[in-house]
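Task 17 of the worksheet. Students: predict the tertiary structure of the chain below and write it out as structure tokens. Keep your answer in the requested format; marks are given for formatting as well as content.
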Amino acid sequence: MALRPSLPVVVVTAFGTLDRAIAAMRAGAHDFLNKPFDVEELAVRLEHAIAHRGLREEVARLRSELSRSSRYGELIGSSEPMRKLYDLLDRIRDSEASVLLTGETGTGKEVVARAIHERSRRVEGPFVAINCAAMPESLLESELFGHVKGAFTDARSARRGLFLQASGGTLFLDEIGELPQGLQAKLLRALQERRVRAVGSDVETPFDARLVAATHRDLDDALAEGTFREDLYYRIKVLEVPLPPLRARGNDVLTLADHFVRRFAAAAAKGVAGIDAAAAARLLVYTWPGNVRELANAMEAAVALTRADRITLDDLPEKIRRFERTHVVVESDDPGELLPMEEVERRYIQRVLDAVGGNKTTAAQILRLDRKTLYNKLDRWSRTS
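Model answer:
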């Protein structure tokens, strides 16, 4: 049984006792038969054993399929937006092209980047990540490209940059929309030439890393504002992967909430087994502007605060408990309450912008307006407000 644990075993013995039968079953036997036995009875027992094995294998297969459909690495969810995301990730994982992850803050861009790396041909190589908004330009340049000894005051020894550290693997540049303009040209050259030059050096060194970048900013806006280079934009956006906001993922909210509750309960050694109906209903209504990150923080706080074995409404943060979904009202029976068409349009456009986290490109697509028209309307309203 150690070599083939799925093989069903029927124990046949001339020394049958209740204790021996119990011991055999505990050891993993499917059935127990005393001698002398009837051949037909043995045949029936064996058929039952084979059928039971088939059922176990089918259950294992279904559980495996369920696991695959609701998880992708550390990503969790079985909603239609997530199934589309999993399919897209499967199609791009082995490409060497640069990937741009877009979406609101807290949607899990680094988790997606790791999932791409862990399912790619580069999985044996390193996954190296940096937040481009987390340090000043001078330090960021050194982090990315490295420096030679004496390149600046504190450069007491040479250092390999992240491009070289990520060779053979994946380099993840988070918040690339915040990359200082002075570094954008250097990054573009590195990506075009597949070589980097350390700060203070006149020698270029080749690297072999796949680039995955991420941003919560609308880079089309940055292009229009002149704060992001167009040539770099197209270099990093060979493959674009939009991440859905949590409010668009339906019951994934409850799946994720249950996952976080169990994780934080285990870490805190608390016997919290899930979420009650009232709390679950409120989690589904809330619009989660901070997305998965906000949900994780809310569940961590709820686990810390609860005195019950399930998260209740009172355990949730106040802004979630008190949240009420708002609707845009465009009709009334009272003529005095009716609004001019331009005001209805202004309020609706603002509602759409709020729903997509301020992403003007996505809002324009929903509204079926070209971007220039949307910009003009917003500019006009800002000047008259």
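Marker's comment: The chain has a mean pLDDT of 83. The radius of gyration is 29 Å.
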